[in-house]
Structures are given as structure tokens and as C-alpha cells.
Design brief:
five-stranded antiparallel β-sheet; alpha+beta; 27 strands; 23% strand
Length: 734
């Protein structure tokens, strides 16, 4: 019957194709899926995708665990697990666990023996949660049934919540549609009661803000509801003795380089097995998370933002658990220099259990930086104790070619009161243009910055209400045309009390205002803002509050003023703190090239290429080499996960780009060549510059160069919309 339903539909395709085209529904696949670009008949025949729906589960009195489920394609039609009557064989695995009443951690019924693989291990062997082995799956009238080989222990609690997890994959590589991965979980109480006790502390949506698609162990185990079934207190690595319990393991991974133990010179290597990489302290393959940096605030790395994961807006049933139920295990995972047994580094002294934690660590106290959970994790620049800094542009006059424009703006605190310019550490305005592509114009022989001019506005005249006026000393070029732009940067420092190790100290907090940007026509033509390639909201999906250059710059619309095609780090390279860097050519810092290379990060290792920028004060910023001890930044490991659950995945352009700019911008003309003194092509054409930010190999550079003539780049012929190798098509992951 399944065969007739699927193949009968396919046989009639030719009769209804005209009607289908006339009333075609919205495409059911996203541009990140291979099926989006596949031949329509192939998609109709294969129906790529895999849905597992658990319809029921039970545990008999003798402990036998049974689960019933269906396998369907995205259209809801049944799939054959063997891949005989429907395309693609399906592989499935099964997990069973119990959530004991009154507890927040699962105990897995399905376990496996894990033996140590190194000499002198912490444990010779241990049982880790895992998939069932040896059970029996059979087809039923409504789907499939699986009877576990593992049984619930004698005397199991039939009143407790039990959870079945099924994860699997559908192999469609024969159709050039990759492998479809999915997983699902099902909660039930064996005695038939309603499920009231659940483990729902963090929603997968929080994880996906950075990870794109939270998946692991080959890709088929997806989402937090699946993760917590195995990452329980039972899960211990026999080699190291470290726990893989979610509340410890996940905290420590994300703390990474910020762990007190790592800051003190140690490393966080919780597991040694057949995967991972070797390190100076691990001769066998291992997982070394010592260089992981939490990406909030773009490089400032502030792991105090608990709500990035413990979001209060995703609807998790126990979203406030981190506030109301602090434990030594969870808190000590980040604060791993605290010894609760001896009281070392703990203002509260010895803690033999978790019952006293809430005495001091209440959810929210009376002020920021106190011992409350929210207070202790306040990001300084966002403290409610600060008076705030808000700058807005209200107008531009005299903004015509050959003239010096006058900028009107306001400087106010959060309460709306004026902030005197004397209270600021700095306030400046930057002017650039035209918006067709920044970087080409000159603001005079005294201006060394290519394509823009920045002037301090500390001498602006202001009223008592906070309205200020400033007239640029540099004029708009007399031959200028089109739309120009002005942006403002400002910051201030305030001193506030902060609780450190139980003592109150005064801490200086530096923070910046959001960068306002305004556009104006210099020749009477219509005002045309610069094209939008990425949006701040996309950046903040990972960075939360994008803020760099000492909190001064935090708006990508403003970043592109300076990070233009003609700019590089020549002005700072001569002061590099590493002598070898001084003799190298300048590094190009055009925004598109720079951001691609920065996020490609450690992927560049092994290609013979490196991306290091010399910053202010001669700081060395190596985004590529994790072993560069002189670097002021960690080498970047992009957190998006591949379909198989591996990090470093950079194929999903839509994580940053908007309006399909990664595809549509290939058709743009009139963009400036990009200065790239350390690159294989200099200057490099604009599309080539952006694409080779990730595709850094010399063969790709040669390919691009051979398809560039005096008439321009030919990228759009093959990689443009509808091309044989369209950008979005070749980047499709799933």
C-alpha cells in the first residue's frame, strides 16, 4: 500500500504538472537544504527528510520496555525502515531513562561498558549511558514497535516520569541528497498517570542561536531533550575520571579559556578516546576545550551572561531553575577553583551539601554585584547602577560638496538628562561616502585614513538639555556626489561598587553608546543608504551585544566606515609587539574579507595561510593559530555545527547575511577593488575578496583570478542565481 501511495503519485506527475506549476505551494525546503535545489521529480519521488513520532510507550511489570513509533517523510507519508518500498534505508537507535521523583537528573536504563584506553586511567571501566543493543524492532499495522533488550530494574518506580529517546538517519546519498538526521523523545508515566515532572531547563532554541543546529555524535542526536538523557551524573570518562553530566560538562565547555583552572595554567580535557585531537598533555586523541571562548560581546568574552543559555523567553518549563536551585556541581563547574569541602575560594566557607546554597545565593538581591545569582553575574557595562549613555543624531546641515557639514546631536543618560561632554572619555564623529562603496574619497592631504575622516567633538557646543552642535573642520570633497554618511562613537567611565570574594571594592566600568548613523545627499540626488549585507541582530545571535575597540564601536552599519576596501593595518603594524610581524606587509581589513577570515578562524590552519591584524598599541590579533601565545585574541572556532555535529561549520551564510546578500551581491557592479597586501592577489576584486575569505586555498584564488579580466569578475556566470554552482546551492548543508 505504501508503494502504491508513493509511486502512484509519481506516475501521475506528468498529467498534473501544468496545474502544479500554476498553483505551486511555498517550497517546503529551506535554502540550507540540498532538496531546495534538486530536480523536482527527484524531490517528488524521494521526499527527502525524516520524521520520527513516538505514539506510545510502556513498561511491563517484569521491566520489559516497549515503544511504538512511526517513520514518515515531510509530507506525512510512511517510510520503510529498510529502504525497499521507499527511498533511503533508515538506521535507528533507542534510549530509555527515568527521571526520579524529586530530582532534576535522569538515570539512564540503557548503558554500555566503557573501558579505559590509556595507561594509569582514573577508572579501569565504567558504565556510561548509551543506546540499547539487541532489542527487537518489528513492523505493525500503524508503524513500528521496538522491544528493548534492556529492562527496567526490579522495583522500578512506576509513578516516575520515564523518557524514551529515538535517534536515526536516512541515507539519501544515492540521490545526491545527503543523509537526513533526526531524533525525538517521549515522556510517560508507566502507571498511566499524567506527566507532571519533566526536565526542561534549557530549550534547544537557545543553543541554536550560536550552534545553528544543535547536534552531536554523528548528527543524529539533536536537541537538549536528547542530550540530557545521556549526559547524566552516570556519565564519567574512565580515562580522566571527569564527569560528562550536562550541568557540569556544558558549563565547563562554554567557560573554556575562562575557567579559573585554565587561567592558572591548566587545561580542560574531560575525555580521551578515539576522537578529538592530541595536545601537550594528551598523547592520545582527546577533547581539549581549554581554548573555547564564549563569544558574547565579540572578543571581550563575558561568560557571565547566564541567560544566553538559560533564556527566560523560550518557554522552558524550568527556565528559572538556575536561579532557584543553585548547586555545588553546577556553580562549581564554572567556578572550578572553589573547593566546597575545604571552603577555599568560597566566601561562605565549607559546604558539605547543597541545602545552604540559597541562604546567600538568592535569585536577585537589592543591588548589582551582590551575592545573588543575578547580581553576581551582571555584565558590568549593563549594570543598572550606571547612569547610561545615549547619543542620537538629529540633523545635518551644510552637507553639500565642498562644504563643512554641521552635525546636531543629543547626549543623554538613561533618565533623559543631559550628559556634559566633559564627563565622557571620548566622543567623535566619522564622515565617509559615497554609499555605493566606502573608501575611495579623500578628505584632504592631512587625513591619513583612507576614505573617511574622524574628528573629536569634545569642543562641540551644547545646551543644558543635552542638544549639541559640531561643525567638521574637514570639508566634503568638492567633486563628491551621491549619499554620504556620518556616525558617532562615544564612551564614558563610571565607578561602581562590586563584590569580589566577599569584599566590596570600587570598580571602574567603561562602556560605550550605541553608534548612530545618518545619511545625507551631497549633490541633491535621492538619499540612498549603503546596502544592507548583514544585520546587527544576526551578529548578536552569538555576540549578544557586539562591542569592540574598547566599547566604542558596536554597529556594523558604522564598522564599514573604517573597514573599507582601501584600509589596512599599516598605521599600527610598525608598532607590533612581535618583531616578526613588523616586517610583514600590512593586513587588509575590508569588512567583508575581514569578517569572513575572522570567522573562518582555525579552519585556515593547514592551508599555509594566516590572518593576523596588528591593532592599537601594537597588539597582535591572530585569529588563526591557537598556539600563538603572543596573540591578544584566541584563534576563532566558529560555533555553528555541521549536519554531523562537528564545529567549525561555516556553510550557512544566512547566520550573518540578510536578504540573500551572499547570493545577490554577486550581480553588483561598481564596487571597489580590495587592498590585500598579504593575500595571493593584491588588489583583489570585491567578490573574490569576500569569497576567498573562507575559501583561502591558492587553487581557489587562481580560479578566481583566471576568471577576472579588465572587464571585471565573471563569478556571477557560474555562481550567480540560477548558475550551475550558485552560492546558496553549493553551501546547502542538509
Amino acid at each position: 500500500m505504501d508503494w502504491l501511495r508513493r509511486y502512484g503519485r509519481f506516475a501521475l506527475l506528468g498529467l498534473v504538472v501544468a496545474a502544479s506549476l500554476a498553483s505551486a505551494p511555498k517550497h517546503q525546503y529551506s535554502p540550507q537544504e540540498k532538496a531546495f535545489y534538486a530536480d523536482a521529480q527527484t524531490v517528488e519521488f524521494v521526499a527527502p527528510g525524516l520524521n520520527i513520532n513516538i505514539t506510545g510507550a510502556s513498561i511491563a511489570a517484569n521491566g520489559t520496555i516497549t515503544v511504538n513509533y512511526t517513520l514518515t517523510d515531510p509530507n506525512g507519508l510512511p517510510l520503510d525502515v529498510a529502504g525497499i518500498t521507499t527511498p533511503g534505508a533508515i538506521s535507528l537507535s533507542y534510549i530509555a531513562a527515568v527521571l526520579p521523583n524529586g530530582q532534576e537528573d535522569y538515570t539512564a536504563y540503557t548503558t554500555r561498558a566503557a573501558a579505559a584506553t590509556i595507561s594509569n586511567p582514573a577508572l579501569p571501566t565504567t558504565n556510561q549511558p548509551g543506546a540499547d543493543s539487541g532489542g527487537v524492532a518489528t513492523a505493525t499495522a500503524t508503524g513500528y514497535q521496538y522491544v528493548f533488550k534492556t529492562t527496567a530494574p526490579s522495583g522500578f518506580d512506576a509513578t516516575a516520569t520515564h523518557t524514551i529517546g529515538i535517534y536515526g538517519s536516512r541515507n539519501l546519498t544515492a540521490y545526491n541528497l545527503g543523509t537526513n538526521y533526526t531524533s525525538t523523545t517521549y515522556n510517560f508515566v508507566p502507571n498511566g498517570s499524567k506527566v507532571t515532572n519533566v526536565h526542561d531547563i534549557i530549550e534547544t532554541a537557545s543553543c541554536n542561536a550560536c550552534h545553528d543546529q544543535l547536534s552531536a555524535h554523528g548528527g543524529s542526536r539533536r536537541g537538549m531533550t536528547m542530550c540530557v538523557l545521556c549526559h547524566t551524573p552516570q556519565n564519567v570518562d574512565p580515562n580522566t575520571g571527569d564527569t560528562m553530566d550536562a550541568k557540569v560538562f556544558f558549563h565547563k565547555i562554554h567557560m573554556g579559556a575562562n575557567l579559573p583552572s585554565v587561567v592558572a595554567g591548566g587545561q580542560y580535557i574531560p575525555a580521551i578516546n578515539s576522537h578529538g585531537t592530541t595536545s601537550s598533555v594528551c598523547s592520545s586523541p582527546c577533547f581539549n576545550y581549554s581554548t573555547v571562548e564564549f563569544p558574547t560581546d565579540a572578543g571581550l568574552t563575558d561568560p557571565r551572561r547566564c541567560t544566553v543559555c538559560h533564556s527566560q523567553t523560550t518557554g522552558a518549563a524550568q527556565e528559572t531553575a538556575y536561579l532557584t536551585n543553585p548547586t555545588r556541581a553546577a556553580c562549581g563547574s564554572c567556578h572550578d577553583n572553589v573547593n566546597f569541602a575545604t571552603g577555599a575560594n568560597h566566601a561562605g566557607g565549607i559546604q558539605n551539601d547543597d541545602t545552604q546554597c540559597t541562604n546567600c545565593h538568592v535569585p536577585k538581591g537589592e543591588m548589582d554585584f551582590d551575592a545573588s545569582i543575578m547580581g553576581a553575574h551582571v555584565v558590568p557595562a549593563e549594570s543598572t547602577l550606571l547612569s547610561g549613555l545615549n547619543v542620537k543624531i538629529t540633523g545635518v546641515t551644510g552637507g553639500t560638496a565642498g562644504s563643512t557639514p554641521t552635525l546636531t546631536f543629543t547626549v543623554l543618560n538613561t533618565a533623559g538628562a543631559a550628559v556634559p561632554l566633559s564627563a565622557l572619555g571620548s566622543i567623535s564623529a566619522t564622515m565617509t561616502g559615497p554609499t555605493t562603496d566606502f573608501g575611495a574619497v579623500s578628505f584632504g592631504s592631512t587625513v591619513t585614513t583612507p576614505g573617511y575622516v574622524t574628528e573629536s567633538m569634545t569642543g562641540a557646543t551644547c545646551t543644558s538639555s543635552g542638544t549639541c552642535m559640531y561643525t567638521f573642520t574637514h570639508a566634503i570633497p568638492a567633486n563628491a556626489g551621491g549619499t554620504f554618511a556620518i556616525g558617532i562613537e562615544a564612551r564614558r567611565t563610571e565607578t561602581e561598587p562590586e563584590l569580589i570574594n566577599g569584599a566590596t571594592v570600587q570598580t571602574a566600568i567603561e562602556y560605550g553608546a550605541a553608534n548612530p548613523v545618518t545619511y545625507f545627499s551631497v549633490d541633491g540626488s535621492p538619499v540612498t543608504p549603503r546596502r544592507t549585507v548583514v544585520q546587527e541582530a544576526n551578529c548578536n545571535g552569538c555576540h549578544v551585544n557586539l562591542s569592540i575597540h574598547g566599547t566604542l564601536r558596536n554597529n556594523v552599519e558604522y564598522c564599514v566606515f573604517c573597514h573599507n576596501p582601501n584600509n589596512n593595518d599599516a598605521s599600527t603594524r610598525s608598532s607590533a609587539t612581535v618583531a616578526a610581524q613588523k616586517s610583514l606587509p600590512p593586513q587588509g581589513i575590508n569588512f567583508a574579507m575581514m569578517v569572513h577570515k575572522v570567522h573562518y578562524g582555525v579552519n585556515m590552519n593547514g592551508t599555509g595561510r594566516n590572518y593576523t591584524i596588528i591593532g592599537f598599541g601594537g597588539s597582535v590579533n591572530d585569529f588563526t593559530n591557537p598556539n600563538d601565545t603572543a596573540s591578544s585574541v584566541m584563534a576563532v572556532l566558529f560555533p555553528a555545527l555541521s549536519p554531523t555535529g562537528s564545529p567549525l561549520e561555516t556553510q550557512n551564510c544566512s547566520l550573518c547575511h540578510v536578504n540573500s546578500s551572499e547570493q545577490n551581491d554577486l550581480a553588483l557592479t561598481g564596487l571597489l577593488p580590495v587592498t590585500d597586501p598579504q593575500g595571493p592577489i593584491n588588489p583583489v576584486q570585491p567578490i573574490t575578496s569576500a569569497c576567498t575569505g573562507c575559501h583561502v586555498d591558492i587553487a581557489t584564488a587562481s580560479h578566481a583570478l583566471s576568471n577576472t579580466t579588465s572587464l571585471g569578475e565573471a563569478c556571477n556566470v557560474c555562481h550567480g542565481t540560477g548558475g550551475a554552482y550558485a552560492v546558496d546551492q553549493v553551501h546547502a548543508q542538509y
